[in-house]
Design brief:
Layout (H helix, E strand, L loop, with lengths): L2 E9 L1 H6 L4 E4 L7 E11 L7 H4 L10 E12 L13 E16 L7 E4 L24
Parallel strand pairs: 1-3
Antiparallel strand pairs: 1-6, 2-5, 3-4, 4-5
Amino acid sequence: MPTLKAISVRQPWANAIMLGKDVENRSRYFIHRGSLLIHASLKLDAGALTDRRILSLPINDLVFGHLIGVVTVLDCVRNSNSRWADLGREWKLLLANPRPLLRPVPYRGQLSLFEVDHELLRGLLPPGFENELPLDMLPLR
């Protein structure tokens, strides 16, 4: 069964990733590179709601407990000049090309990297995304 890798991210950070946040701060090294599903966890990081970086983003509804989009993980580094890099976290995932799913998909997240059956996302992946998938995952539209 072909799968896609995913991580859970607390809101409003998951939403920020879909709006262009280019660094996800993590306490552990992250080996995965390439396409990564973003899962909006059930928990809210209430302190983040007053973060000036979050306040600078467009206001929209936060979704909880759903897969909301896909990004490309470019690398995992200790230092980044991004405004989204937090000094308190040892590792920074460098992210690019955020693409929201055509609609959020209810899903139970996990604490570390997890796998999602690609069939669950049939017809929901952003246009052009199928070019990034291994051939055994096609067609998904």
